[in-house]
Amino acid sequence: MSAAAAKYANLPDIDTAPDVYESEDPAPVPLTTTHGEEPPTRKNANGNDNTDELDTREGPTQDAAREKFRKAERRAERMRTMFEGEGGYDGDGRKMSVGMRLKALQAELSALEADAAVGQEDDGDAGELIRGLVDVRSRLSALRRGRGSLVAKLTNDVDGQVESSSPAPGPSTPASTDAKTGLVGIDERVAQLERVVGSSTASLDELTPLPPPLVPLITRLNAQLTLLAQPRHIDSISRRLKLLLSDLDRSAHTHGRKGAVASEPTHQQLLPVLDRLAASVPQIPHILTRLKTLSALHASAADFEQSLRTLEEDQKRSHSALAELDSALKHVETSLEENREVVKTNVEGLESRINALFARLESI
Fold this sequence. Notes:
Layout: H1 2-7, H2 62-85, H3 98-118, H4 126-146, H5 150-154, H6 158-165, H7 174-197, H8 214-228, H9 231-279, H10 284-293, H11 295-363
Helix pairs in contact: 2-3, 3-4
């Protein structure tokens, strides 16, 4: 190092002073422990690490440990229920219904009552805790009673209907009487609305014993009324009705004239036929029975008629062929007779010429 310093000592602009901005690295700071790391080991009073020493403290008993773990489980269940129901959302981020939130509150209330009954809550006044529990339970009961719907009240079970039809002797409360009167009034109003709309007279099948819902039916009727109430639709409907009425009037007049003209001759033609059939009315059933029995014979007769017609046609064709052959034979006979006459004439001429030739030869 001294040789290098001596080598570059005479060179200008060489800074050999230490840098003021350089500093030593800070000492490492231990990180905080997480859930997955073990806590740092404790030291005893002498400052020595006691990881290798035995823990001479007395452990909890079995009952105390069981009670401690049971309390921890209840607290974890209560916290889980509270976190699930907080904000009205479940663990998946979906909106919880009112019934689910009510069940969560009831479960939390049951856990609080169990803890209060065991006596594990050491802090706070016991009377104040009991009063708070009673208040919460009364509010939950009121909420649960308020959620009763009209359908559940109208569709009671059979036992409730029997009891209501045959009440026990005793004074009835005004509240129950008012409730029944209100339900009866609502039922009558709904029935009247169904009769007006027409859903009570609609055709029902075995799968849907209840009448169709009123809201979609009323919505459809409202849409139809809105469509029909437009002026252009009313004008088009009136024009079509006028045309239809005029066509109906013309057709009625035409049928009336035709019926008046053709009714009298038809009646006059039917009266003699009816007079002739009146004497044969008792025999008509026997005739029909006989005709039914002869239906096979009639079918055979129809087949025989068809066969006979075929034979007649074949016979006609044969006669025509024989006539043609007869005419041809006659033509051949006449031709042969003519040829015989011609040959005879030729032979006679030849004989005369031969005789003349012999005479000339004899003369020579």
